[in-house]
Amino acid sequence: MADRWALAVAEDGGVDVAPLGPDGLPAGPVRREAGPAEAVRSRPDVARWVWRSTAEVAPRLLATGVRVERCYDMEAAETLLLGHEGRYGEPRSAAAALARLHGGPVPADPPQRSAEPGAQSPLFEPQAVHLPLEDLLTVYAEQQRRHDRTAHPDRMRLLTAAESAGMLVAAEMNHAGLPWRADVHRQVLHDLLGDRYAGGGGPRRLAELADEVSTAFGRRVRPDLPADVVRAFGQAGVKVGSTRRWELESVDHPAVKPLIEYKKLYRIWVAHGWSWLQDWVRDGRFRPEFLAGGTVTGRWVTNGGGGLQIPKVIRRAVVADPGWRLVVADADQMEPRVLAAISRDPGLMEVAGRESDLYQSVSDRAFSGDRAQAKLAVLGAVYGQTSGDGLKNLAALRRRFPKAVSYVDDAARAGEEGRLVRTWLGRTCPPAAGAADGAEEAGLPQDEPAGSSDRPQEWVPGYASRDARARGRFARNFVVQGSAADWALLLLAALRQACADMAAELVFFQHDEVIVHCPEEEADAIVAAIRESAELAGRLTFGPTPVRFPFTTAVVECYGDAK
DNA sequence: AGTTTCGGCGCC
DNA sequence: AAAGGGCGCCGAAACT
């Protein structure tokens, strides 16, 4: 049995499959099967299935309980390769890749559809283009050659494998759903907001707070209309530029307290209230549609339901099934640890080589024990902070960890100058990303490289334009956030394999946090598997490195009890 | 009336 | 003086 097989879905839902040799070329005759499940089930020893789109195939496998070991997602590969080649914006479908090879007209990608609440099969792609197996093989062979031509072929191949694994995990999470107790959710809502229908059609507590705000101003003010609030403050003799919380917090006025409380609860009501519950929770599960690789940095997004923005108070509703547990695992200080691994800064690698609190260690070395300052400085360096305490403390950071800071500085400069910036494994930042305004559809730099623009947007001689600086900040953050996403994909892939021979299921993933739903007796094994997967992912992603990737894990029945 | 943008905030 | 990065979501406001 060949190690790799290719699989092409036909118009009628049947599939053609063929074994691939070590060179990636067909090593046997094409066979016809009734569907992906039949094809996979009768070939249990295949190590990797090569197909056009995991989102197309995986739901059909999951529906019949068939699992694959690994896959190669051709359209994920095409996206990564186009990015690496500096060709962001070109159509990324397999059909487009084929057309480019044959010199024909290149079809545009189908438009992204958005999720509909309660959709039964949200992953089914209505506009799926069924390429014959022979064409898939042509594209695949060319993609192999394109991997070979990248700056680090071994890393790029790993990235494609990791992204493909992520697509499998995402499909499995979409299938499983996050255990969700609607009754608990309703109780939380009632505790926070009071009766659902009380004053003016809204919840009681919001009506009360709106009254308090109005009383404080001495006239009727609607707290959810920013313009109305700004006007009311103006009439009270307080000049505010917006109604953002950080700005209001420094205002001394009796309306501030109820206003901030109102906005907090209003947010819960509109984004995770009763109608959200009705729209997104079915049969005891919340099913956001996870999209692996949904952002340019490689972070995932969810399509529908705000799956990655579940407010802390609402997590009370995430409850394990009877006899089961949630293993909630959160990577400790992931971004500075990743910065240590990619920059090879000796000092930062040394502190990241311990599992203890990294910010405290940085603080001990450079900030005379003030952990909060150290954390601000590190995050400021990663995010490109341009003012405030973070900037002030950056100098101390630079003295102690020069290679780490210059690593992100170099990325920022490259971004400003419109050069390509890549994560450790080779995911590539679009040159125009981070531009202040739209018009990046062309996928090309928006304005002149720094210093050569004849119409600078700001008159600061020798400095980059505002847009260029925005791209610099984007690129600075990209190398860290994106390399962290590289590592997280490998972590997920390893954890998925560890869960394979247990009942445990991966049910949630949020950048540096993962939740496994498992029978109580498997919880200890899962905790160990997370630790082992994290270290394995570190070695696979970054090669030999002293950097550790510890997790804080909690075995709980309720997500709200973690942390 | 329908679509896009804005303001604001949730998460990391 | 200078907006710290990435997202999604909602209603209101602003547009067509």
TrEMBL record:
A biological process from GO: double-strand break repair
Enzyme category, top tier: transferase
Gene3D superfamilies for the chain: 3.30.70.370, 5' to 3' exonuclease, C-terminal subdomain (1.10.150.20)
Keyword Nuclease appears in the UniProt entry: yes
One Pfam family it belongs to: DNA_pol_A
The EC number(s) this enzyme carries: 2.7.7.7
Positions with biased composition (Basic and acidic residues): 30-39
Keyword Nuclease attached: yes
TM ranges: none
InterPro entries, per database record: DNA-dir_DNA_pol_A_palm_dom, DNA/RNA_pol_sf, DNA_polymerase_A
The name this protein goes by in its record: DNA-directed DNA polymerase
UniProt cross-references to NCBIfam families, sorted A to Z: PRK14975.1-1 (NF011538)
SMART domains, per the entry: POLAc
Molecular-function annotations in GO: DNA binding; DNA-directed DNA polymerase activity; exonuclease activity
Residue stretches making up the DNA-directed DNA polymerase family A palm domain: 311-522
Taxonomic superkingdom: Bacteria
UniProt-annotated stretches for the region Disordered: 18-39, 432-460
Keywords: DNA replication, Exonuclease, Hydrolase, Nuclease
Catalytic activity: DNA(n) + a 2'-deoxyribonucleoside 5'-triphosphate = DNA(n+1) + diphosphate
Residue ranges with Low complexity bias: 18-29, 432-443
